[in-house]
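Repro:
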Amino acid sequence: MADLTFATLSGDYTVIDGATIEDFTGSLHGESLRAGDEDYDSVRRIWNAMVNKRPALIARCSGTADVINSVNFARENNLLISVRGGGHNFPGNSVCEDGLMIDLSRMTGVRVDPSTQTVRAQGGTKWGAFDHETQAFGLAAPGGTDPDTGIAGLTLGGGIGWLSGSHGLSCDNLISADVVTADGRSLTASADENPDLLWGLRGGGGNFGVATSLEYRLHPVGPLVLAGYLVYPYDKAREFFALVGEFTADMPDEMNIITFLATLPDGGGKVCRTLLCYYGPIEEGERIIRPLREFGPPLADDVRPMPYTEAQSLALAPQGRHNYLKSHFMSEVSDDALDITLDYFDRVTSPLSSVLFQYLGNATRRVPANETAFGHRGARCEWATNAVFLDPGESEVHIRWVRDFSSALAPFSSGPYINQVGTEAEEGEEAIQAAFGDNFHRLATLKQKYDPTNMFSHNQNIRPRI
């Protein structure tokens, strides 16, 4: 087997001889891939087409033993590593250039225990498969709004979803996790074992190891929920956002919404959209959303009873497009923030781009700020703008629009959402500290305990500190 050149944690490169590579790859029950292998390009490519990195080697793990062997190999050789779960995150941290990519995409087992209303799923599972299994028993956990998103990445950074009004974030429902740490141990993080690690996993990102399985608390949901889109004229945007402000102020726990500014396909012009989901009695949901239906009136209304798994697919984002996103948490959508938002969307540079306000839900905001590593409990919503485009040659103009937009709204921000933040090299340490808020220093101490050499650094990185 040929020698391979790897990027290291030190920022330089090292050559590992073919015999050592062969010993490592032979230790895997799964497979390994390098440039030129048949599946290499399909595995290294992720949802966001802007990310086009080429790992020196990909370890396609079949289970925890493969993950342990991969971590040990990387540590012994000081290699740069990335960890891929679902491969959906905007910044593309799951793929590294010239390093070792630890790929969990084949680790997708899900086991539901309906008697205890819990589920354990492997770290490569996506929410679509997770919901498919849990809904067979009429159960669900808060899990984002796109079935293609991986459960591990979303949960480790927080996880806002349709059920967050009653049951909080994905991380609030994480009971335990199995984690391979930098020293090659597989630890259980739970209330009884390594509870400090469990605290850090609930919103601290991928800083503490590789989550090979996650256990969640489940809740009865379905069989049908009331969900769908309402579309309004763009020239009524100010009145629309005033209505949304009133609606969300008294929103019941069973309801959550996302509001969008978007452009209709085929030259249909700009519109305001609300995507909502209510999982209580359908008749009660119809009564609650009546003010939204009476406003406008809507240009389109496809809100209807549907299975929860269908509601989870309403915001499915197409794969293979270029996406560049920035986001902020906000305690309110003030008139000044709205003025800036409308001004920038008037000048949107791509018809595929959008602006959204995703509401965190009532239960999310009831959790004390220091109970988990997720540090933005006072926020009402997440503002995000996503430049979406097809031609990479246009990237400069679209990226500039997003960055200027985000900078203009920074005075109204309580900090960014860690799941949308890139690496420290891309964003700077200040942005990462702001994403964790007052929990940052506790997280840095925890990092020192579980990853003192900062092996897990190709992420929204917390540097180890005593």
